Amino acid sequence: MTSPIRVTVWGENFHEQSEQDRAGMAERYPDGMHGAIANGLTELLGESVTVMIATQDQPEHGLAEDVLNTTDVLTWWGHATHATVDDVVVDRVQERVLGGMGLLALHSAHFSKIFRRLMGTTCSLAWRNSSDTELVWSVNPAHPITVGVPQPILINDHEMYGEFFDIPAPDELIFISTFSGGEVFRSGCCWRRGKGKVFYFSPGDQHYPIYHHPDIKRVLANAVLWAQPENVVDLDPPSVVNSPTPHFDSRDLADGVRS
Amino acid sequence: MTSPIRVTVWGENFHEQSEQDRAGMAERYPDGMHGAIANGLTELLGESVTVMIATQDQPEHGLAEDVLNTTDVLTWWGHATHATVDDVVVDRVQERVLGGMGLLALHSAHFSKIFRRLMGTTCSLAWRNSSDTELVWSVNPAHPITVGVPQPILINDHEMYGEFFDIPAPDELIFISTFSGGEVFRSGCCWRRGKGKVFYFSPGDQHYPIYHHPDIKRVLANAVLWAQPENVVDLDPPSVVNSPTPHFDSRDLADGVRS
Amino acid sequence: MTSPIRVTVWGENFHEQSEQDRAGMAERYPDGMHGAIANGLTELLGESVTVMIATQDQPEHGLAEDVLNTTDVLTWWGHATHATVDDVVVDRVQERVLGGMGLLALHSAHFSKIFRRLMGTTCSLAWRNSSDTELVWSVNPAHPITVGVPQPILINDHEMYGEFFDIPAPDELIFISTFSGGEVFRSGCCWRRGKGKVFYFSPGDQHYPIYHHPDIKRVLANAVLWAQPENVVDLDPPSVVNSPTPHFDSRDLADGVRS
Amino acid sequence: MTSPIRVTVWGENFHEQSEQDRAGMAERYPDGMHGAIANGLTELLGESVTVMIATQDQPEHGLAEDVLNTTDVLTWWGHATHATVDDVVVDRVQERVLGGMGLLALHSAHFSKIFRRLMGTTCSLAWRNSSDTELVWSVNPAHPITVGVPQPILINDHEMYGEFFDIPAPDELIFISTFSGGEVFRSGCCWRRGKGKVFYFSPGDQHYPIYHHPDIKRVLANAVLWAQPENVVDLDPPSVVNSPTPHFDSRDLADGVRS
What we know:
Four copies of one chain form a homotetramer. Chain A is α/β, with parallel strands linked by helices. Chain A is about 25% helix and about 30% strand. Chain A has seven helices and ten strands. The first copy, chain A, has a nine-stranded mixed β-sheet. In chain A, a hairpin with a 4-residue loop joins strand 7 and strand 8 (about 185-195). In chain A, helix 2 (about 30-45) packs across helix 6 (about 215-225) and helix 4 (about 85-100) packs across helix 5. Chain A is globular. The two termini of chain A are about 40 Å apart. Chains in contact: A-B, A-C, A-D, B-C, B-D, C-D.
């Protein structure tokens, strides 16, 4: 693939604007969390990507048909306002993922409508917000998502996400995190759905400057490369195929003329 | 588990009553397809099950809360009227599956709301209705769903369902079918979702007396045994757990008194 | 299955007898580690099992053909003398597992010849023996191996086993352990191989009285129930089948007389 | 990866030379089967590969250490003389696969020592040599191994390989074949082992000119691209890591200075 991968970084853009959080957010994320994610991808992937930003407060949440139709990989960060994401947009994103678009669901996006739709489960988990140390361990060392990533990634301060994480068994389990409180979490998980690929990655809370962490930026860049569409000739999800003609021709079989 | 497994056999009950189909259905399925399925389970599993029937034309589609709360395994056959199944009932069934109830999705139930919800994909497939011979091959010979089943099961006349079947990769692939037209289909697939188990099994079209076939009855009986709840102490799906207390006690760690 | 499950508990029986270790072993494991494991199974499973012991120092390592031919589930603990296990016995055990016998590979048996044979990988891991606290978390809460097991299991003192653990991706991942040093380990893993089932479970070092721990005993008892042969009519591993006769009869296909 | 992928095509080179087969082989495969496979890769992959040939009749079967140390992907075709492949060479290939080299096991290589080593099972199957029509169906339409491949691939004449195929459940199932006799076979299967990737692909019998088939050549070319080492910084398989230093610093935990 010689043309750049078209990435749309989607952000809820709530904490960035809320009275309670905006001062801290402005310090940690002067360009918003979506801005930090987008900057990291551009920094690491250079001309092999073109990165756009879309946010929930835009018309159609910034995800009009023409945007999705020109997006190869969509990253999704949401937390406080999952419920107000329009079902019509969720339908559209789901259809596009099944049609081949990659999706990176980040941190609290475990509870986003789109991730729960694609998983079919509650996506619930255990949780504590008390500034744990998190270590992110690879259990799939030759997987492309782990290229250039240390064993383990050290995150000095982070919210704890723990098991049981109610997801379908991942097609490929990439990362497992431990926390200084003793908990464990399947923090990097891959699935195929339809013609598309989905990666869930848990590091990335709004209260911590996680998306400036060089190893986290590396994981997200690797994941964009992994999730880009392969072998996709159209944008459509799989559909019913009427096959009126049998593939084995019974006369030939009867005549033994198959050779 | 010494108390009987409580099975609810759910039927759409449309072809049985439609002007176009009811004569043929009455010949093939005098008790309805749901009746045939229920009879097969009772015949093969005897006192280890109690079998109830529920149909779409009943209030709440026969699936009121008290019914689901006393159901260990639900079998689902639908075809013509998926769209008119009430979303409230679908929500309830999904919640109950995630809470531990087994679900057997049969034949055209690949397109039922509940199955698509649990899969997250389109569940589309290839299709031809021209009286193919179907052979159902086991690729998991020591799996409990294959107990007492010949290799292959021979179905003289059946509708063709073929690949690509747009489902998440099964946690366990049990059966693959071939058709005299040359097509192939992953016809028996297992998934875990939440605390529950899901089995999809494709043989079972309304135009063919499949549910009287002794090997098909055997597969369904085996699947009920497999899908029954294990290790389920309540009816609730997994939910968020707030874990305020770290598991590693830092003072003890610092003092090195763990030994 | 109404007849008891026939379990053979295999022990290396080295540390129990070595000059260096025997005093400590006699305190921790007066009946040997194999004795402790056998006692736990008998205590928890009662009349549903008959438990035998076999050790490496016996003729044919206690695993003569007639022993294996009457064993439904074999548990394997070895550590210091893997290399001196006779390849003929390893061949025999492998053949029997592929023929349907369950195998529980315990702790340092990750490096046993039989486990490496069945995995095809190095089965290497990270390691530290410094009396860590280990927490064993379930990531598969409705799996039969987790029945009656707390979330998490707490082991106050144990050797650390950490990732990367070089195994094939488990068919079912059941437990993940964290350690007070921050490491993580896929500590409970299920695979099917041939007609048999394999469970690897890491807790169980000779320096710690792990096999007296009630939750560990529970896991082993659950695993014996899970690993027992299902749907196995003979002791033989899968073998080549010559199929001279096609299943689709071409004349019938040509005549369209399939119905 | 800008430098070419170094492919070594390994051939048993027995039928090419045996009195019984050499006339037919010379017609079907004037350059040997290994020559046909190598030519196909060069034709389709051009400068992105450098292709070498090694055969069993060479010293060290053509797989001396320096050859394997400069091989990114090894393709393996063997049939009549599996038993005479030197175990020392098999050890070396296994170690190299676990260290990151890709392996394509072709057709009757299901019974090669190296494939059975990596699988841990008998790798037995059902079989009939009576010139069946084979259809190769993709069940993973967006997988890179299926790029540019029709649904299904039609092979007019081929030996039948059928289920039960005694392999570990594939990490990714790509192709399933049907045969005009009605049989089914998981004909394209992916596994990760250690740091390496393994692809088994069944089409390719010595009695049929399969390796000149454009779609089969395409699959092999795709598989080479898929199997090339990713994220591999050395040639070594995973090994034991002694981790004397805990990752969580207990003083810091005690002081609560993590925040």
